[in-house]
C-alpha cells in the first residue's frame, strides 16, 4: 500500500526524484526499489522542475493502464498541466509529450486509422532483402575500422545501423540519415535542444514527402502517400516521425545494451559465445534487464481513479516504468536459467499500443550483434564498465560510447574493396 494519503496529489507532494535519475544512475533497479519502498507501485516523480507525473513501477499496474484506453488515454490534450499552461511551449518534454497527429498519440478509432498504414507498411517489407541489406551495412561499418584495431561501437557501429536501415526503408540518402540521427538524439534527450531537433526532423521529412509526391518510388514514404487512411501531408509526416524515431532510438539502444553486456558481463558473454544460449534468448535477456525504453511517456487519466492504492486525478500524466516492471518478481525470477523463452517483459508495451515494429527491430539487432561477434576478434572494452557514459535522456538508458580494442584485420573485404 502506498504511504501517500488519500488527499495527496501530484501538486502537493514535495521533494520528488527527477525521472532522469532512473536512467543516469549506476544502479537503476536500486532507485526503482527505493521508490517502490517509499510510495508503492505508483510513485510521483519530477519530469522538469515543477512538472510532476506518476511513474508506474509494477508489471500488473502497467498492463492495467495500457489495456484500458477508456480510462487512460494516449492523447496529451487530456494532460491537465498542459491545459493549465504550466508546461511551457518551449519545454524539452514537448517532442515526446505534446500532441501529434500520429498513432502514438491517439485512441480508439483514430488510433486504429493511423496505425493501419504502419502495420501495412511493415507487413510489406521483404525480410530477406532487409537481412541482406542490414548485414551489408554492418560489414561495411566494421570494414571501415577493421584495420585500426580500435572503434567506438556506438558511434562507429550500433547507432549507424538502425538509422541507415530505417532511412533506406523511407528512401533517405546517407546525408539525410546523418542529419536525422543528430535530430533524434536531441529529441529523445528532452533537453534545451529538443525542440530544435524536432524541427529539423520534421523539415527533412517534409522535403522527402515533396520529392516522393513528384517522383514516387518503392519505399515506405511513397506507400504512406498512397495510403487512404492518411488524410494529409501532416499526418503522413507525423506517421514517418513515429516510425523513424521509434525504429531508430529503440533499436539503437537494444544493440548498444547487447554489445555492452557482451563486453562487460563475463557470464552473459560466455553463454552467448559458448553457444549455451541462442542469440534470440540473449537478446531477450537484454530486453528484460535494459529495455530500449526504460520509461515510456505517457498515459493521461480521463477520470479520477485509484491505481494500486494511489489516488490519480483526471488529467494526471502516468509514465510507464518498463525497466522497473521487468524486475517485478511476479513475472521475473532471479535465475536466468529459468527464463529461457519467457517473453512476458514489457519492452514492447502492452495493449492496443503494443509496438508494431518488434519483428524488424529484432531482425536488425540480431544481425548487428551476430556480425560483431563474427567479425571482431579478441574484442575488449577500452574503458572500465563503470566508465561507460550514457546519453542524457529521462526515457532511455543508451550508452553514449563503447570504446573497444581488437585484433586488426586488413586482409579481407577491406583490401578487396580497395583493389576493385
From TrEMBL:
It comes from the Bacteria. Gene3D superfamilies: Cytochrome P450. GO terms for molecular function: heme binding; iron ion binding; monooxygenase activity; oxidoreductase activity, acting on paired donors, with incorporation or reduction of molecular oxygen. InterPro entries: Cyt_P450_B, Cyt_P450_sf. Belongs to the cytochrome P450 family. This is Cytochrome. It comes from Saccharomonospora piscinae.
